[in-house]
Amino acid sequence: MGIEVVLGDITTEQVDAIVTAANESLLGGGGVDGAIHRAAGPRLAEAGAKLAPCEPGQAVATPAFGLSPVKYVIHTVGPVWEGGEHGEDEVLTNCYLNSLRLAADLDVGSIAFPAIATGIYGFPAQRAARVAVRAVRSLPVVDRIRLVAFDEETRHALTAELAEPA
Ligand code: APR
Fold first, then answer.
1. In CATH, what number is assigned to the domain containing residue 124?
2. Which of 63, 74, 94, 155 is the most buried (most CB within 10 A)?
């Protein structure tokens, strides 16, 4: 199993599954969710609506539609940051673990994650990077894992966490 940190637009990732940082309606929104829905097309929201609501920490899979050759979009809902004492770390950990479990069930060989919850939901980048790296290291069920940063601060945070011994 390999874990890589990359800087870029997740909608250009050539992987089997792309994870989106969704909201409970699964209808799309701003940020990375908006970019993925724009790239996948309106069928993504139609498919998501049939599976909604998705609770924070849970994950559901749909086809990737216009994002082909990507096979699946895995929708997961991160925690809204409320200061760090309201179980946010646990919910964010579950986002990564439940997405990986779902990917393994779907026989996915490669998966790309955005920095879930660190944008509109306000989760601090460094703490989220630590949660993300610990979570994906704890469940080696997908061969290739790409942690996609959209900005330099996130890339640096993820790279630093990945440099820490497991
Ligand atoms: N590729 C990769 N990462 C991206 C992209 C992109 N094209 N666009 C944004 N990001 C990054 C952001 O810079 C941030 O680091 O994704 C991370 C997550 O930020 P958000 O997309 O704001 O997600 P989140 O904080 O989980 O908030 C989710 O926002 O878009 C709505 O419907 C979504 O209500 C939900 C909420």
1. 3.40.220.10
2. 74
Domain range for residue 24? 2-163
**Tokens representing residue 141 in the block:** 């069920």
28 pLDDT more than 80: yes
C-beta of 32 in contact with ligand 1 (< 6 A): yes
DSSP-derived 3-state class of residue 117: coil
Please determine, for residue 153, whether its predicted confidence score (pLDDT) is greater than 90. Answer: yes
pLDDT digit string, tens, across residues 106-129: 999 999 999 999 999 999 999 999
For residues 49 and 153, what is the distance between their CA atoms, to the nearest angstrom? 33
Instruction: Kindly state if the Cβ of 11 falls inside 6 Å of ligand 1.
Output: yes
> Is-contact 20 75, C-beta < 8 A?
yes
What local confidence, expressed as pLDDT, does residue 104 receive? 98
**Verdict on whether the full-model pTM lies above 0.85:** yes
Query: Active-site residue 33, yes or no?
Result: yes
The helix/strand/coil state of 25 is coil
Domain count for the chain: 1
